[in-house]
Amino acid sequence: QVQLVQSGAEVKKPGASVKVSCKASGYTFTSYAIHWVRQAPGHRLEWMGWINTGNGNTKSSQNFQGRVTITRDTSATTAYMELSSLRSEDTAVYYCAKNGDGDLHYWGQGTLVTVSS
Amino acid sequence: SSELTQDPAVSVALGQTVRITCQGDSLRNYYATWFQQKPGQAPVLVVYGKNNRPSGIPDRFSGSNSGNTASLTITGAQAEDEADYYCHSRDSSGNHYVFGTGTQVTVL
After folding, report:
1. Cα separation of A69 and B72, whole Å?
2. Contact, A39 vs B102, CB < 8 A?
3. Which of A95, A101, A103 minimises the CB distance to B42?
4. pLDDT tens digits, A59-105
5. Three-state secondary-structure class, residue A97
6. In A, residues 11-70, which contact B (CB 8 Å cutoff)?
7. Which of A57, B49, B65, B79 is most buried, most CB within 10 Å of its CB?
8. DSSP per residue over A13-67, as a string?
9. Burial of B95 by CB count in 10 Å (0-12 exposed, 13-18 middle, 19+ buried)?
Protein backbone atom coordinates (compact mmCIF):
# COMPACT_ATOMS: atom_id res chain seq x y z
CA GLN A 1 0.00 0.00 0.00
CA VAL A 2 1.08 3.56 -0.61
CA GLN A 3 2.86 5.12 2.34
CA LEU A 4 4.50 8.47 2.86
CA VAL A 5 6.48 8.61 6.08
CA GLN A 6 7.88 11.94 7.16
CA SER A 7 10.74 12.85 9.47
CA GLY A 8 10.15 13.87 13.06
CA ALA A 9 9.35 17.17 14.70
CA GLU A 10 11.91 19.96 14.63
CA VAL A 11 12.59 23.02 16.76
CA LYS A 12 14.58 25.77 15.06
CA LYS A 13 15.73 29.27 15.87
CA PRO A 14 14.78 32.24 13.71
CA GLY A 15 17.08 32.58 10.72
CA ALA A 16 17.91 28.88 10.62
CA SER A 17 16.88 26.33 7.99
CA VAL A 18 14.92 23.11 8.29
CA LYS A 19 14.88 20.08 6.01
CA VAL A 20 11.93 17.69 6.16
CA SER A 21 12.03 14.30 4.48
CA CYS A 22 9.23 12.20 3.00
CA LYS A 23 9.98 8.51 2.45
CA ALA A 24 7.70 6.92 -0.15
CA SER A 25 6.84 3.25 -0.55
CA GLY A 26 4.24 1.03 -2.17
CA TYR A 27 4.40 2.51 -5.67
CA THR A 28 6.85 3.54 -8.38
CA PHE A 29 8.44 6.65 -6.87
CA THR A 30 9.29 8.35 -10.15
CA SER A 31 5.78 8.02 -11.58
CA TYR A 32 4.09 10.60 -9.37
CA ALA A 33 4.94 14.14 -8.34
CA ILE A 34 5.23 14.94 -4.66
CA HIS A 35 3.74 18.12 -3.27
CA TRP A 36 4.49 19.96 -0.05
CA VAL A 37 1.73 21.64 1.94
CA ARG A 38 1.85 23.37 5.29
CA GLN A 39 -0.67 24.45 7.90
CA ALA A 40 0.08 26.98 10.60
CA PRO A 41 -1.86 26.58 13.86
CA GLY A 42 -5.47 27.61 13.33
CA HIS A 43 -4.83 28.52 9.71
CA ARG A 44 -5.73 27.10 6.34
CA LEU A 45 -3.75 24.70 4.20
CA GLU A 46 -1.06 26.38 2.12
CA TRP A 47 0.48 24.83 -0.98
CA MET A 48 4.25 25.22 -1.02
CA GLY A 49 5.47 23.51 -4.16
CA TRP A 50 5.99 20.25 -5.98
CA ILE A 51 8.66 18.15 -7.59
CA ASN A 52 8.52 15.97 -10.66
CA THR A 53 10.20 12.95 -9.12
CA GLY A 54 11.11 11.64 -12.56
CA ASN A 55 13.20 14.53 -13.83
CA GLY A 56 13.63 16.61 -10.68
CA ASN A 57 11.88 19.71 -12.02
CA THR A 58 10.23 21.81 -9.33
CA LYS A 59 7.69 24.59 -8.94
CA SER A 60 7.33 26.58 -5.75
CA SER A 61 4.78 29.06 -4.53
CA GLN A 62 5.84 32.66 -4.91
CA ASN A 63 4.59 33.22 -1.37
CA PHE A 64 7.90 31.85 -0.09
CA GLN A 65 10.09 34.25 -2.07
CA GLY A 66 12.70 31.68 -2.95
CA ARG A 67 13.09 30.31 0.59
CA VAL A 68 11.85 26.81 -0.25
CA THR A 69 13.93 24.14 -1.99
CA ILE A 70 12.43 20.80 -2.97
CA THR A 71 14.64 17.89 -3.94
CA ARG A 72 14.46 14.12 -4.24
CA ASP A 73 16.69 11.08 -4.01
CA THR A 74 15.31 8.44 -6.35
CA SER A 75 17.54 5.70 -4.96
CA ALA A 76 16.11 6.35 -1.49
CA THR A 77 12.57 7.01 -2.81
CA THR A 78 12.59 10.10 -0.65
CA ALA A 79 11.60 13.70 -1.27
CA TYR A 80 12.88 16.64 0.76
CA MET A 81 11.65 20.13 1.50
CA GLU A 82 14.07 22.69 2.87
CA LEU A 83 12.85 26.05 4.15
CA SER A 84 15.43 28.71 4.92
CA SER A 85 15.51 32.00 6.81
CA LEU A 86 12.92 30.69 9.23
CA ARG A 87 10.71 33.08 11.15
CA SER A 88 8.07 32.54 13.79
CA GLU A 89 5.32 32.60 11.17
CA ASP A 90 6.82 29.44 9.67
CA THR A 91 5.75 27.44 12.72
CA ALA A 92 3.42 24.89 11.17
CA VAL A 93 2.75 21.27 10.35
CA TYR A 94 4.40 20.41 7.04
CA TYR A 95 2.92 17.64 4.88
CA CYS A 96 4.05 15.82 1.79
CA ALA A 97 1.42 14.39 -0.53
CA LYS A 98 1.22 12.57 -3.83
CA ASN A 99 -1.40 12.21 -6.52
CA GLY A 100 -3.29 9.01 -6.96
CA ASP A 101 -6.85 8.73 -8.22
CA GLY A 102 -6.94 12.48 -7.76
CA ASP A 103 -4.63 15.27 -6.79
CA LEU A 104 -3.02 14.87 -3.37
CA HIS A 105 -4.70 11.51 -2.77
CA TYR A 106 -2.08 10.25 -0.30
CA TRP A 107 -0.59 12.27 2.54
CA GLY A 108 2.26 11.88 4.98
CA GLN A 109 1.57 12.06 8.69
CA GLY A 110 2.87 15.62 8.96
CA THR A 111 5.94 17.13 10.58
CA LEU A 112 5.65 19.87 13.16
CA VAL A 113 8.26 22.58 12.75
CA THR A 114 8.46 25.07 15.59
CA VAL A 115 10.44 28.28 15.14
CA SER A 116 11.29 29.87 18.46
CA SER A 117 14.14 31.77 19.98
CA SER B 1 -6.68 36.28 -9.19
CA SER B 2 -5.30 32.99 -7.90
CA GLU B 3 -7.41 33.01 -4.78
CA LEU B 4 -10.08 30.42 -4.01
CA THR B 5 -12.75 31.80 -1.71
CA GLN B 6 -15.01 29.75 0.56
CA ASP B 7 -17.60 30.65 3.18
CA PRO B 8 -15.92 30.45 6.61
CA ALA B 9 -18.58 28.30 8.26
CA VAL B 10 -21.83 26.50 7.58
CA SER B 11 -24.10 24.35 9.69
CA VAL B 12 -26.44 21.53 8.75
CA ALA B 13 -28.98 19.49 10.64
CA LEU B 14 -28.27 15.79 10.95
CA GLY B 15 -29.51 14.00 7.84
CA GLN B 16 -30.00 17.17 5.82
CA THR B 17 -28.10 18.47 2.81
CA VAL B 18 -25.37 21.10 2.78
CA ARG B 19 -23.52 22.70 -0.12
CA ILE B 20 -20.06 24.21 0.25
CA THR B 21 -18.88 26.55 -2.49
CA CYS B 22 -15.49 27.61 -3.76
CA GLN B 23 -15.06 30.60 -6.06
CA GLY B 24 -12.06 31.54 -8.15
CA ASP B 25 -11.11 32.57 -11.66
CA SER B 26 -8.98 29.48 -12.24
CA LEU B 27 -12.03 27.25 -11.76
CA ARG B 28 -13.19 28.29 -15.21
CA ASN B 29 -10.34 26.15 -16.56
CA TYR B 30 -9.54 23.59 -13.88
CA TYR B 31 -11.60 21.27 -11.71
CA ALA B 32 -11.50 21.65 -7.96
CA THR B 33 -10.40 18.90 -5.62
CA TRP B 34 -12.06 18.71 -2.20
CA PHE B 35 -10.50 17.70 1.11
CA GLN B 36 -11.96 16.95 4.51
CA GLN B 37 -9.81 17.69 7.55
CA LYS B 38 -10.59 16.80 11.14
CA PRO B 39 -8.66 18.29 14.08
CA GLY B 40 -5.15 16.98 14.42
CA GLN B 41 -5.38 14.88 11.26
CA ALA B 42 -4.03 15.09 7.75
CA PRO B 43 -6.51 16.10 5.05
CA VAL B 44 -8.48 13.37 3.28
CA LEU B 45 -9.39 13.56 -0.40
CA VAL B 46 -13.17 13.29 -0.82
CA VAL B 47 -13.97 14.49 -4.35
CA TYR B 48 -11.83 15.11 -7.43
CA GLY B 49 -12.24 15.82 -11.13
CA LYS B 50 -15.69 16.31 -12.60
CA ASN B 51 -17.34 14.37 -9.75
CA ASN B 52 -15.26 11.42 -8.60
CA ARG B 53 -14.75 9.87 -5.19
CA PRO B 54 -11.78 7.78 -4.08
CA SER B 55 -12.49 4.31 -2.81
CA GLY B 56 -13.92 4.41 0.69
CA ILE B 57 -15.55 7.83 0.45
CA PRO B 58 -19.33 7.61 0.95
CA ASP B 59 -21.55 8.48 -1.98
CA ARG B 60 -23.23 11.22 0.04
CA PHE B 61 -20.28 13.38 -1.05
CA SER B 62 -20.57 14.84 -4.56
CA GLY B 63 -19.01 17.65 -6.55
CA SER B 64 -20.17 20.01 -9.26
CA ASN B 65 -18.83 22.95 -11.24
CA SER B 66 -20.33 26.01 -12.91
CA GLY B 67 -18.34 28.91 -14.29
CA ASN B 68 -15.96 30.15 -11.62
CA THR B 69 -17.62 28.16 -8.82
CA ALA B 70 -17.05 24.62 -7.60
CA SER B 71 -19.37 23.01 -5.07
CA LEU B 72 -19.18 20.12 -2.66
CA THR B 73 -22.54 18.71 -1.55
CA ILE B 74 -23.09 16.44 1.40
CA THR B 75 -26.49 14.76 1.01
CA GLY B 76 -27.71 13.36 4.29
CA ALA B 77 -24.99 14.77 6.54
CA GLN B 78 -23.75 12.54 9.35
CA ALA B 79 -22.16 13.48 12.64
CA GLU B 80 -18.79 12.23 11.39
CA ASP B 81 -18.91 14.75 8.53
CA GLU B 82 -18.26 17.58 10.96
CA ALA B 83 -14.89 18.90 9.83
CA ASP B 84 -13.10 21.59 7.87
CA TYR B 85 -13.39 21.34 4.11
CA TYR B 86 -10.93 22.81 1.62
CA CYS B 87 -11.08 23.16 -2.12
CA HIS B 88 -7.87 23.00 -4.14
CA SER B 89 -6.98 23.65 -7.74
CA ARG B 90 -4.32 24.95 -10.06
CA ASP B 91 -3.89 28.68 -10.26
CA SER B 92 -4.50 30.61 -13.46
CA SER B 93 -0.96 29.90 -14.74
CA GLY B 94 -1.53 26.16 -14.44
CA ASN B 95 1.93 25.71 -12.91
CA HIS B 96 1.09 26.30 -9.28
CA TYR B 97 -1.66 25.19 -6.95
CA VAL B 98 -3.75 26.96 -4.37
CA PHE B 99 -6.06 25.96 -1.53
CA GLY B 100 -9.33 27.61 -0.71
CA THR B 101 -9.85 29.58 2.48
CA GLY B 102 -11.64 26.64 4.10
CA THR B 103 -15.17 26.02 5.41
CA GLN B 104 -15.95 24.71 8.86
CA VAL B 105 -18.98 22.40 8.73
CA THR B 106 -20.99 21.85 11.89
CA VAL B 107 -23.57 19.07 12.05
CA LEU B 108 -26.36 19.96 14.46
Report:
1. 33
2. no
3. A95
4. 999 999 889 999 999 999 999 999 999 999 999 999 999 988 788 99
5. strand
6. 35, 37, 44-47, 50, 59, 61-62
7. B65
8. -TT--EEEEEEEESS-GGGS-EEEEEE-TTS-EEEEEEE-TTT--EEE-GGGTT-
9. exposed
Give the tens place of pLDDT for each residue, A31-58: 999 999 999 999 999 999 999 999 999 9
In sign, the C-alpha dihedral spanning A72, A77, A81, A82 is negative
Rounded CA separation B79/A58 (Å): 40
Cβ B60 vs Cβ B76: under 8 Å: yes
Residues paired with A96 in a beta bridge:
A36
Rg (CA), chain B: 13
Q: Which residues of B touch A59 (CB under 8 A)?
A: 95-96
Distance from CA of A103 to the nearest CA of B (A): 7
Give me the DSSP letters along B63-93: EEEETTEEEEEEES--GGG-EEEEEEEE-TT
Adjacent-strand bridge partners of A78: A23, A73
pLDDT in tens, B17-68: 999 999 999 999 999 999 999 999 999 999 999 999 999 999 999 999 999 9
Q: Which residue of A has its CA nearest to B102?
A: A44
